[in-house]
């Protein structure tokens, strides 16, 4: 069931984890937020929380003079831990939150329209554009299936109500910055938890207002690094689907495509080891063989 509120939503927390190697990206990220803040005057109040990890890393640039930053250093590396610390820091202070990685460039148009839609939804999402800045098109909202949003897993192109999150948090021991073989999946798991807790079948989607994510040159390395975490979740979705029968059908289709692509990689050359890893992860998720992570849905 969607969370509803009669009061206008305007306080938005922007959570930005940052590593020692990302100072330049952080500087550009903050400059984009400073521009958004000016464009959103009267429509939204932004609370920007930067989470350096590990604590004490000398990466922090001088923020724009007109942008107030709250620094929240963390002793341990890990994107999930950083985001969780910021969520606890913002509890009771903001109406909605967006996870803005240093390479993400949301637009003020997306935030403005998403805030309006949050009156009747726990979260509002948009496509991802791999570009230097977010394109601005039509602000018309459509609906997408909850299963699509969970599988897609791009949490940094979503605006989420804080009261819809409640006590839900990222699984801290997986994801980038941790030693876990699950280097991906923490984003999808949180989206899954929101969808399951609120029994959602569909959600608002601002197709004309994509959120930009800078293009990356390490795509092949990323596919290999994320392969186990992604494959494990593909198997888990078939055992613990959301979105009713249509959601199960969608997950089944994506599982068949995932297995087919993995087989093609296995039969290929340089990607053979990644294809095998994806298939092993899928089987492991299907049968819940990895005890280092809880099954989807536990504790909800």
Please give a structural write-up.
The protein is α/β, with parallel strands linked by helices. It has 2 domains: 11-215, Spore Coat Polysaccharide Biosynthesis Protein SpsA, Chain A (Alpha-Beta Complex), CATH 3.90.550; 224-286, no CATH class. 40% of the residues lie in helices and 15% in strands. The chain has helices spanning 23-39, 79-90, 108-117, 146-152, 162-165, 186-197, 219-239, 244-266, 272-286, and strands at 11-18, 45-52, 69-71, 96-99, 104-105, 123-125, 128-129, 142-145, 158-161, 202-205, 211-213. The strands form 3 sheets. The chain has a 6-stranded mixed β-sheet, sandwiched between helices. Strands 5-11-7 form a 3-stranded mixed β-sheet. Helix 4 packs parallel to helix 8 (244-266), helix 7 (219-239) runs parallel beside helix 9 (272-286) and helix 8 (244-266) packs antiparallel against helix 9 (272-286). It starts with 10 loop residues before the first strand and ends in a 14-residue tail after the last helix. The model has no long low-confidence stretch (mean pLDDT 91).
- The topology string of helices and strands comes to EHEEHEEHEEEHEHHEEHHH
Question: CATH fold name of the largest domain, please?
Answer: Spore Coat Polysaccharide Biosynthesis Protein SpsA, Chain A
Report the sheet-strand fraction: 15-25%
Number of helices: 9
Distance between the termini: 15 Å
Round the Cα radius of gyration to an integer and report it: 19 Å
Going by helix content, strand content and strand pairing, the class is: alpha/beta
* 3D shape: globular
**Main sheet characteristics:** 6 strands, mixed
pLDDT < 50 stretches: none
Helical percentage: 40-55%
Number of β-strand runs: 11
What's the architecture of the largest domain in CATH terms? Alpha-Beta Complex
């Amino acid at each position: 069931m969607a969370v509803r509120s009669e009061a206008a939503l305007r306080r938005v927390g922007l959570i930005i984890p940052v590593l020692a190697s990302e100072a330049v990206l952080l500087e550009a990220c903050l400059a984009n937020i400073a521009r958004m803040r000016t464009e959103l005057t009267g429509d939204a109040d932004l609370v920007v929380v930067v989470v350096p990890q590990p604590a004490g890393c000398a990466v922090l640039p001088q923020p724009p003079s007109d942008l107030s930053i709250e620094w929240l250093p963390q002793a341990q590396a890990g994107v999930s831990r950083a985001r969780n610390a910021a969520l606890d820091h913002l509890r009771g202070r903001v109406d909605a939150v967006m996870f803005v990685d240093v390479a993400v460039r949301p637009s003020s148009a997306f935030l403005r329209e998403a805030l309006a839609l949050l009156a009747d939804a726990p979260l509002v999402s948009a496509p991802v554009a791999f570009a230097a800045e977010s394109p601005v098109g039509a602000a018309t909202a459509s609906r997408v299936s909850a299963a699509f949003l969970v599988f897609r897993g791009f949490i940094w192109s979503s605006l989420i109500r804080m009261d819809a999150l409640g006590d839900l948090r990222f699984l801290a021991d997986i994801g980038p910055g941790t030693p876990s073989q699950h280097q991906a999946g923490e984003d999808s798991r949180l989206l899954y938890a929101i969808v399951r807790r609120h029994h959602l079948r569909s959600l608002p989607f601002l197709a004309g207002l994509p959120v930009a994510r800078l293009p990356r040159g390490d795509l092949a390395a990323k596919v290999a690094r994320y392969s186990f975490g992604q494959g494990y979740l593909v198997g888990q979705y078939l055992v613990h689907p959301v979105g009713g029968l249509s959601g199960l059908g969608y997950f089944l289709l994506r599982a068949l495509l995932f297995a087919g692509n993995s087989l093609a990689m296995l039969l290929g050359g340089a990607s053979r080891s990644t294809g095998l890893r994806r298939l092993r992860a899928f089987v492991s998720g299907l049968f819940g063989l990895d005890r280092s992570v809880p099954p989807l849905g536990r504790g909800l």
